[in-house]
Design a protein that fits this description.
299 residues, alpha/beta, Ribosomal Protein L25, Chain P, seven-stranded mixed beta sheet, 5 helices, 16% helix, 30% strand, elongated
Length: 299
């Protein structure tokens, strides 16, 4: 049978050894490597790999190539059913709720997995200061279909309250460093007595108990589907195959995640806990994004 070739990577042992020896990757278990230990560290499960192989069948032609997007699709299908949904803010922007009582902490029940009732609920805690994604705020919205946060607009915080942006705080260089918002205390849990609808819902973490984390965003190792088209295949290495976010904020329940255990960061993708995590700093590897381009192309 022919070797299993996969798009945007190489599977030749000689080529993989070259990548390791020339420090293009961080060892055989680098999550960008198509090795079993690399795939495991990135968060690919045994069942997703088996599903991928079963869908391919047996190849006898040497030039047959499998789409890496199919492997990602197999993992997405599995984790959509099994992974708990957690809140993590990768690019934090501080928000102060000006009319929220000092020292008050509210408790909310959050569904762990809407696809699995047996996964139960967890507690999330709300405080006067929270973090949201910087990309969830714009000082000047591009159009009327922008439903996230901007001055004067109201959004729903997942599991919590409605908030409205009242003031934008910037540093001396003009960079936004803080938002001042107000909340509607009658909107607890995401609904109000007057029944008004808020279109935008964003995730958040409380500054009171957020945990610092490093997030590693993995992408294709090579920019070309077939990197071996060029004599020096290393010229096709993707300079953004790994993007490290050193100062993310995540909800405290993630400290209970086990090594290589998968979860979903809401609105971001599926992640797993890296073995380099310590008691003082968690490290998460992105296994796969939420968007499934392979599925759309193969309908």
């Amino acid at each position: 049978f022919a070797r299993l070739n996969i798009t945007n990577t190489v599977t030749s042992k000689r080529k993989l050894l070259q990548l390791v020896k020339e420090n293009h990757v961080n060892g055989w278990d680098d999550p960008r490597m198509p090795t079993l230990c690399g795939l495991r560290r990135r968060g690919f499960t045994p069942d997703s790999v088996k599903d991928f192989i079963n869908r391919l069948g047996y190849a006898k032609k040497r030039d047959s190539v499998a789409d890496f997007g199919l492997l990602e699709h197999c993992l997405r299908e599995e984790l959509n059913k099994s992974a708990n949904r957690m809140m993590a803010v990768i690019d934090p922007l501080k928000v102060v709720i000006t009319n929220y009582p000092d020292g008050q902490i509210d408790e909310f029940d959050a569904v762990n997995n809407p696809e699995d009732d047996s996964a139960g609920n967890r507690k999330v805690y709300f405080s006067k200061e929270i973090y949201i994604e910087r990309t969830d705020f714009m000082e000047e919205p591009p159009n009327r279909k922008y439903y996230r946060l901007y001055p004067g607009n109201e959004v729903r915080l997942k599991h919590a309250y409605y908030i409205t942006c009242e003031e934008v705080i910037k540093d001396d260089d003009g960079r936004i460093i803080e938002l001042r918002c107000t909340y509607d205390p009658e909107s607890k849990g995401g609904s109000t007595p007057d029944g008004r609808k808020v279109r935008g819902t964003i995730h958040w973490v409380s500054a009171h108990d957020a945990i610092d984390a490093e997030v590693r965003l993995y992408n294709n190792l090579f920019v070309k589907e077939n990197p071996l088209e060029d004599e020096d295949f290393t010229i096709n290495l993707n300079p953004e195959s790994l993007v490290v976010i050193p100062d993310a904020k995540v909800e405290p329940s993630l400290k209970n995640l086990k090594e290589n255990e998968n979860c979903q960061f809401m609105r971001h993708g599926y992640f797993c806990l890296d073995p380099e995590s310590t008691g003082t700093k968690l490290v998460f590897n992105r296994s796969v994004t939420l968007k499934d381009s392979w599925s759309k192309m193969n309908k």
